Each structure stands twice: as C-alpha cells, then as structure tokens.
Amino acid sequence: MSAPFSEPGFQIGDRLELDVTAEALRQGQLLLAPALNSLFSQPDVSVVLETAAEPIALKYDAAKGALKSVKALRPLAKQSGALILECQSVQPYRFRLLLEPAAPVELPPPITPSQDPLTFAEEDRALLRNDRLTLARWRDFRLALQATRLGMVAGFDQLLCLPWLREVDLLDHQLRTARTVLRRLRGRALLCDEVGLGKTIEAGIILQELVVRGLARRVLILTPPSLVEQWQGEMRRKFGQNFIVHDDPRFREKGAQAWAAHDRIIASYHTAKREPHRSAMLKQDWDLVIVDEVHHLRHRQTLLWQMAAELRKKYILLLTATPVQNDLEELFNLVTLLQPGLLSTARAFQRQFVDRRDKLMPRNVDQLHQLLAEVMVRNRRSTVGLALTRRIAQTHIVALNAQERALYDEVSRFVRQHLRVATRAQTTTARALSRMSLITLQKELGSASQAAAPTLERIAQDERLPQDERAALQQFADTARALTTGSKAERLLALLKDFPDKLVIFTQFRATQAWLQRCLQDAGEQVVVFHGGLLRLEKEEAIRAFQGPARILLSTDAGSEGRNLQFCNAICNFDLPWNPMKIEQRVGRLSRIGQTRDVYVFNLAAADTLESAVLHLLEAKIAMFELVIGEIDMILGNLDEEKEFEDVVTDLWVQSQDSDTFRAALDRLGEQLMTAKENYVRQRAQEERLFGEKFTPEG
To answer: What is the CATH number assigned to the segment(s) 388-607?
Structure first.
C-alpha cells in the first residue's frame, strides 16, 4: 500500500512494506513506525514470521516500539528483499510477516549507434556489460525515493503527518497554527489560544510533523502533575506516540539513567526540578521540549524557570492561555525561554515597554507586538467561529436511609481518626494506615455503601489495628454487603423515568458499576458497561452498542478519557471525584466541538457528606458547570496552594473537629476560589486588551 496505515484501518489482505535496517535485524528487532505502535501494543494483536521452515511468533516490545526475536530476525540481515506485513484477520488482528526476494534486474541489450544515435564511451559500455555490477535493492530504492520526496517538500505548507492522526477532528485554526509555528517561527513558539481551542492538539500536530520528517526523535513533555496521564493518553490515542511517564516502574527502576534510556518522556514539574532528575535531564540533548501550563514558569528566580532555560533543546513549545498574570515581566521571562535576547535584557524591556505606574500597561505597543510576532500564536473563540451549546446542570441531593446514614457516619469517624494519625506520622508507621487506602474508603462511601465493602474487609484484616476495631470494620463490611438497595440508586431510577434519552452514567469504582448494572438491568434498562479492564475491541463494541440499541452507558472514569460521545447529550455523575478537573473531563466527553444539542449534567450527591460539600463549593462559588472546558484549571492555578485541590479539601476535613468547623473552613476556601476566578477574568480581559487579534496564525 502506498499510504501509511492509520489503526484500525487494516483490512484482510492489506500489505505494508516495512522499512528495516540490517543493523536492527542483527540485533533481533524490527522497529515499527509510530503509527503502528499503538496497534501492536494491544494484547490481542499477533504477528507470525513465515520466512523460516516453521512459522515463528514475534513478541512486541512496547518500550522499544519493536517486534523482537533474535533467532528469527537475525538471519534476515544477510538476505535481500522486502519485508511485507500482511493482514490475515481483523477481529482480532492477525498478521504474517514474509520476505519477498528482490526481483532480478535485467539490463536491456547494449545500444548500438545503428539503433539509436545515442553513443557511449567505451568505458561506460564496459561498465554496463559488467556482470558483477552491484544494483540497489528495491527496498533501498524505495527508501531513497521517500527521502527524495520528503526533501522536495521545502517548506511546511503541506503537513505530511495528517494520515497518522486518529480520533482527531482537525480544525482549520489548529492546522494554520501548526503551519505557522513550523514555517515562520521555526519550531519555537508560545501557544496562547484561549481555553477550549485545542492547544494540546496543535502541539501534537507539530510534534508528529517533526517526527515524520525525521527532525525530532527525543521529546520531553513537562506538565503539572494532574495532567501527566492526560498527556500520555492523548499522545498515544491520537498521535500514535508512546511516551513513558516518570512514575512508570520501568522508568523508576533505572533511576537517573532513565532520562538517557528513553526517547519519549512525560514528567511533572515537581519531578523535573528535583535531584537527581534535574541534573540527569539537563545532561540530555532534546529535539523537542513541550511545556504545558507554562505560566507556572513565569518567574525567573524559580528553579522551574532556571531548569527550563538550561534545557538543551532544538525546538520548544510553551502552552498557556494566560501568559501575563501580574506583570509584563512575566511575558518577558516566557519569551526569553524561547528566544533569549529577542526582548533585550529585563531592565531594557522594563524601560522601553512597561509603564512605570502600572506594570500591566505596555508602552510602545506596536513595536512590542512586532517583536512578539516572532514567537507567539493566539487563537480566540470569537475569531475561529466555534460556539459550544449550553450546559444545563441539575443537582440532586439525596437523603440517606437510616442504615446508610449510620454506616457513613461510623466509617467516616474511623477514616478521619486514622488520617490524623497518618498525617502526624508523615509516613506509614506501625500504627498508621495508608493515607491512600483511607481516602479511597471515604470516596467509596460517598459512591455507594456496597462499594465500600471490599475495602472495609481488607482493612479489617490489618493486624496493626486493635482487635475491637478490626471486629467493628468487619461488621461494617457485612452491613454494607447486606444492603440490597440504596437511596442514590432509587433517585437514579426515578431520574431515568423523567429523562427518556440516552444517558452516560459515571462512577469512580468498579464495585459501584457492577452493583448499579444489576440494579438497572433488574429495572428493565438496557445497559452496556465501559471500564479500563476491557480489551480494545471490547471497548469499541461497548460504544457501538451504546450508539445502537442500548440506552445507558455505565462507565468508570476510563470513559472520560479520549472518547467522543457527542451523539449523546446527557450524563449523570452518580458519584463525584474530589478533583474538579476529573469532573470536567467527564462533561467534556459530551460538551465539546461537534455537539449540536444542549448538554444535561445530572449530579447525585448524598446529603451531609464530603461529596455534597465539595459540589456545593464548586457550584456556589465558581459556577463550575457554566465554565468553558479548561477554565477550571486556570482558576485552580490561581490558588495560592502547592497541593492538589482534593488534598486541600481532604486536609481541611481531617483537621476540622466537627461539621460546623468544616463548613467554616470550606467557606474560607470558597472565598479563595472566588478571588481566583476574579483574577482569571481580570487576566483574560487584560490579555484581550494587550494582544487582541494581533497573533492570529496565517492562512
């Protein structure tokens, strides 16, 4: 086939000629193109080599992005011909790998002057008649031809990477941004689109184009901790790029050496600035560095900014919707990461471009814009013509029945008491239970009593606890398992009677999902489940069933990542993550570009619980469900907190003596959130005045 494959586009009989090197074959490995990596990383995909007397199954090494077998592949290094990958079945994918010998090249008879006026020098004629003439193999010729074609594309007006993209609804402003960054800004740019316009997609297109053209091999992505997994998933699903994250066991076992061992790495800011990682990372040469939410690096005196400035990089992309927050000097600092000296020195910049009376007010605006045009691209929702449909949120506060209420209160007291012990210990001691286990238990209680039973039983077996506590926990577990219904489930069934259309129901826990599935099926509902434990083909089948006859998709948060469900326009949060960005990801599966109907968001929360308190905080103080996707992160970024939002809430709850003091603490946090939102709105207005439409990418 002449065009590159885009998984899952294989059909039975499709054949793909692979580009291989003799050196790789001698090492027993067959490196795959980026577009094939995500396909072969699936457990149900297999490939058999049929060049030997007996077919040999090849194993896929995800870390190297290669098929491996020293015994089978090494002998191929001495043979000539083309390696062909042929599809034999589709569900599941089965391939065979075969070697097609190069066809012998026959020279035409020597040309004589009598047949044609063209003549050859005697030495040239002797060369053409030489039986030992070495001719290029067909595979080598094809490789040279591909290189020649790439070389003929002198600029970036034509993007070569687009056939490799998957599950991406490409928008015109994203393509124009990619071409502008590659063509005019030479791969070093500040992407300042307003939230919701797809800066991640733009960065991914630029990355993929550099990879396809052979201009980028080693890539580093730096991001806040909460976005590490999101970036990894986006790069894998949409661009076929497999990145390893800093907390992957394969990465951690290598220690500081991991920075040299892997070519594609995603790391959080906090990891990157800590030793020994910082020094190891700075020793490497990076082809491309991407920094998300780069406004966190706006101060030159911080370790983060200094680390980013010292990185050895050829290309660099800085992503933020708010490049200026408190002072124009922040803009100077970010631009200096891209092109040191473009805005002269800090002192000269202040003297020439900053009003002495107001550090947010620029002077010599036209000249400043002319310089910023060398590094900045900014798209606005008003100019790209994208409008989202309305979001209509309804919150249902559900009163727990007597059994549920007693169980929630008793277990909550246990969790709060032991979280205080764990906090004082600062580490797991002989008396301290795992903070993560305790928080998980509290979240399960807010989801459904039945979901907490397995965790209660597991903690009840912990021999560090006194016997009376262990007995009480086992009794709580028995009570939770014995509950055959639940107040929230009853409210959900009532909601389904009032709302007749398709509905995505989200829960954080598999135990809740399994219990709800039984409840809904007993009520006569047609339900399909979606969770991270399904195989790829099973996930695809679940989505197809939901598009077809099934009315309800019952999903864990695995369904909030990378799945576009615009054919549905309603979700129900059966339980609520304490991290508002995860709630936003759920809503974003439906409320996104391409949605033509208003989106309904139903929130279920048990009364007088931690979940209902968090939900009230987000709704009352910042009207979370009215925000554009991405704005909640901008607001939380303005909080003067190093901790994640859910850790802030957890600590307030643990430190409070009773519900009254907790409510008072949440009120104070709410005031901080309101201030953070006001700051964000002010920043957005200031940037509109400062930048306007000046940095729209070229057509």
So the answer is: 3.40.50.300
